[in-house]
Structure formats: structure tokens, C-alpha cells
Amino acid sequence: MQLDEQMKCWNHAAVKVLDIRRIVMEAGAQLSSYTLPANGFIYTIRGSAQLQLDGQTYKAERFYMLHGAKGSSLDIQTNEEFEYILLYYRAFLAFPSYRKKWLLAQPEVAPFSLQYGFAPSSPLGLLRYLDELEDAWIQSGSLDLLHTKSLFYQFIHEMMVQLAEQEIKTELADPVKQTLRYIQKHYREQVTLDFLAEQFNYSSRHLSMQFKRQTGHSPIDYLIQTRIAKARNLLLRSDATLSEIAAEVGYSDVYYFSRIFKKHVGISPIQYQRKMREEARTEDRPLVISESSIGRRWKSGYIDYENHYQYIDGGSTPMKRRKTSSSMIMVALLSITMLLAACSSGTATTPAAGEGTGASSNNSSTAVSSDTGNQTNKDNETRTVSTVKGDVVVPANPKRVVVLYLQGDVVALGVKPIATSEVFNGAAYKSELEGVNSLGTWFEPNPEAVIDLDPDLIIVPSEETYTLLKDIAPTVYIPYEKMTTEERLQSIASIFGKEQEAETLINNLNSKVEESKQTLADAGILDKTVSIVEGGLKGMVIVESKQFGRGSQAVYEYLGMKAPEVVQKKIDVVSDAAGSTISMEVLPEYIGDYVFRSVYEGADNLTDNPIWSSIPAIKEGRLIEIDFDFFYYSDIYSINKQLDFVVEKLLAAPRAK
């Protein structure tokens, strides 16, 4: 971007001064990898230092001006006592017509993102404005803040005059380089494409395009590879538990972490750890493996052991993934490729209590109105549905439906979507979605992939996904975590005009429940106690609510069976998902007449554990293993299948006395 173009931007800009501060650093002090939270000016007053902005070095002595864009990385190494003024501001193109013209002319360039440094020809003139700005800023009155804005424009004018006189060379901050550096530093945190774009003043689309053009991969692919590489290093070099490693690299849902690790490495984390350590022992060499450097907000996970969290603490954030093979080689090559691309040229964060947890709440809030809230426009073949986000006009007979996370209820209503978020392999309705496009994790779909599908209706389960996709096609937000299974089904049915089908499904479910209860009662089982557990030798989680998932909804809510008294006391008063981790030593006190244990790939084999084997329900064959994937969902399709499984297994088990 030329300087005259930047001047035109200032002529059409609205600005806000965010902060101004005076900083003194001692001789020999240093500031490392400080990320500018906004566009900013750094004006040195006295002393000398070496400044680096996104790797570009500037030798700053007294009266040196440096401008950096939001997201730039600043390093300072002082030679002597060093004083400077730091001025943060936010600016945007205020007039829509000019903003549109700018975007059409250079859509990949963010205004006000120039990076430059120079020694002013009239340094005291700039200092005078900055001193006055600082004084007005400290006063903080309404009139003073207005004065601050006025002084800021005068400061910009004076600086532009001096830049033009000296014909200072300016350059754009490189968003790809900034993104690479940001991910390397913040991979443990919640990171999304939208967040990265906002961080560096670029649109999501253009940041993604530039990143992929330079590296061959999307920012989210790079994030995943970063996390996986860090995780492999921890698996090899530490004795941290799987849940600790998952949390350290940005995944609080350890089960999801295990799945994504296997997709990229080819084997599960535990298998990888055992294999690599065995190879190290076989080769009789130190366990020193060279690893490459790359590899919302929901309730925090509460299952503190080496298996699964019930919730995702959004951080984090698992994102899009690609199938890989020969993973160790691929990750290393990807790291080298990306780092070379970044350095070769100067231009170069399990759902919240809800479907996955078997959630049902008495304080329900339906997202879509009932029949009375729906009005069909016969002429235009549309239907208006009332949602928590306001009325939404949807096609009366949608043909290209995209649904995130709520696909079980959609399938139960006889609708086959063109794309959904990822579905676990063991899900009850997995076969019903054969050939349907996968959009990755439900809480972070790729908007570009959705656009390419040209949907005529989108159904989402969160405000974040609603905001992300609402401009692509008519989008209905279903706050499922506040609904019972039946309420959620009715809301989704209203979107399609399938209220009668929903009523039939609910009636059929209720009939099945009554028949199942009678069958179990006749067999002398219904009044027996049931425990639901998940975990292994390092700790066992006892399910203590009807909303936990793992069969708790089918067993405790629909069938009305009871847990041992110590557990049932909590179930009776808990309305959210809840579970407690206990040691193997006290486990027998929490085990009822029948035990359902949630299992998954890599789960501990407890056969040889004397405490586990001595528990009467285990010893007498009343242990029923349930697949984590199968019991993860609580849509009406899954609940029906889970009830069949539970009743069948209880009837097949030896009778409790």
C-alpha cells in the first residue's frame, strides 16, 4: 500500500484512542514477543534500544517513530535506560461507499495496517502532540476525550507530512507470518478462524486464502498439527495422564483429543506412547525424540481422570481435520514447509449439557414456536418460524439442509441433510448419514465449506455457530441445552412442518418406555439398583445425574431405575450433568446390583484388578459394557436404540438376588 493511499484512508476514517502510556525500561532490560493488542505508535523519547516488529529490526535512538499493526509481535532489547510513549488506537473506514470501493480495489489489504519506522525531521512537533494527548487522556472527562481525538488527528497529520517529506518506505504487516507466530504461542487457547482474522484486522476468507496460498494448509490445519506435535512430545517425555496432556495442548475433551490424535497419527495416544517407548527400549537408547514445532465457552470438564470429559471447554478448540498417514514424517515436513514459507519473504480453543450429555431441563426454552407461530406463505413456498433470534423465513420444503449436532432428531423426522457436523462412528444413526458431507466439529464448522454446499436451510445448536453461518442461508438456532429431548424434537419438527411426525415419535417412545418398564418389572429387575461408571485404574467416575449421558437418561429418567443410595441422593437433587471421581479402594460402596461401564478404545482392562473383580455385580456377571459413541447422543433416535440395548442386556444378565 502506498503512502498516499494510507492518507486517503485517514481522510475517510473514524478513530478512537484506546490508550496512551509512557514506559521506562532499565538498561539491559528486554521485552519479548509482546503482541500488539491494537494498531499502535511507539515513539522513543530518550536512550537507545533495538526494536523488532514481526522480525524486522529497527535501531531506535531518541526521537524514533515506529508504527505496528494489530497482532504484530514486538521485541525490545535496551542498551541503556530507554523511555518511549506507546499510543494505541482503533480506526475504520467510516463511510460505506468508500469502504466498498476500498474492498473492491484491494480486498486483501487491511487499512491502517502499514508497518514502518523512521526518525522524524521535526521530532519535537510530534512530541508536543503526544504530550498533549497524554495530558488529555489522563483527565478522562468527556470534553477531554473529545480533545484527545482532535489531537490525535493533528498528530496523524504532522506525522504524514514528515513521512511524505522523507519518502519513508512502508510495508504491510504479513498476516500469515502473524498467524503462524500467534498459533505457536497460543495453541493451548481457544483459537478460531474468525478470532485470528479479527486479531489481525483481516476478513476470515482472505486470511484463510492467503495462509493456504503461502503454506498449502489452512490456519486450522496448522493449529491441529501444532497441538498434535506438542502432545506427542509430552506422551514420549512425560508421565502426564492423557487428560492432562489433552488440556495442555488445548483439548479439554480427552475423548475428542484421542479421536483427533488417531486420525492424524494413525494410532491412539496410549498405543503411540507404548509403541514409541517400546522401540526406545528395544534400541537401548535414550528416549529423546525430535519433534517438530507444529502439530467457547462451555462448561469445564469435570471428569478428572485419564478418559473423557463430559463437556468441551471450548478452548479450545478442536477444529477441522484431515486424514493423514505416516504421521511423524508428515508433521515434520509440514513444520519445515510452513516455517520456511513464513520466513522466506517479508510479504509473506463434548458439547455443553445437552444432546451429548443426555440433557433435559425443567426450565425449557423452545427455540421455535409451535404451530401458532408458523405461517406458511403459499405463494413463495416459505414458512416463517419464530426463534430466540427473531422470526426466520425458511423454505417450506427445504432440499439442501445443513445441520450441526442435532442430526439425530432431523434423521428421526425423515429428513436427510446434505451435510452435518462430525458423527461418532458408533452413533445409533451413523448408517442413516452415509454419503452425507462432514463439516468437522459441530462448534467450529468451516463457513467456506458450507457456502460451497449452497444450503437452503441451516440448523445450529449455539449462538457462536449461528453468528458464523447466519448470512449464508436461513439459519435457525436451537438452544438444545435448555430443552428436554421431546421439546427439542418438537422445535425442530416445527421448522419442517412435521409436528405430527414428532408427536408420533414421542408417543411411540413413551409406549416403548412403558412396555420396557413392565418387561423389567416382570423379570424382577426394575426395582434393582444400577450404577453407571466410566474410567479405569487411576480413577472411576460415578454418574450422579440423569443428564450425564452414558445411558443415564435411558436408565434413570425413562426407565426410572434407581442407583445405590449414596448415589441416588445426588441424582434426586442434581439438575445438571454431574459425576464424581473416586478411587478404586472405595468403588464397591458405589456399585449397585447391575453395572454399566462406558468403554472406548484404549480403556483400561480391569480383569486382573482384585478390587474390581471382588465386587459382587462384577464377580457374578452383571457387568454390562456400553460403547461411548453409542451412548453419547440423546436425540430421540438414539434414545430409542439405547433403551433397546439397556433392556436387552439387563434381561440377558444373571439375576440379582
Q: What's the short version?
A:
The chain has 657 residues and is an alpha/beta fold. The chain contains 22 helices and 23 strands.
Core attributes:
657 residues, alpha/beta, 6-stranded antiparallel β-sheet, 5-stranded parallel β-sheet, 22 helices
Plain-language structure description:
This protein is about 40% helix and about 20% strand. The chain has 22 helices and 23 strands. The strands form 5 sheets. It has a 6-stranded antiparallel sheet with strand order 1-8-3-6-9-10. The protein starts with a helix and ends in a 5-residue tail after the last helix.
Mean pLDDT: 78
Q: Which sheet architecture does the biggest sheet show?
A: 6 strands, antiparallel
Q: What value does the Rg take, in angstroms?
A: 30 Å
Record the strand order, biggest sheet: 1-8-3-6-9-10
Helix content: 25-40%
**What overall form do the CA principal axes indicate?**
elongated
- SS-derived structural category: alpha/beta
Tally of contiguous helical segments: 22
Tell me the distance between the termini: 82 Å
Low-confidence stretches: 284-379
> How many DSSP-defined strands?
23
Share of residues in strands: 15-25%
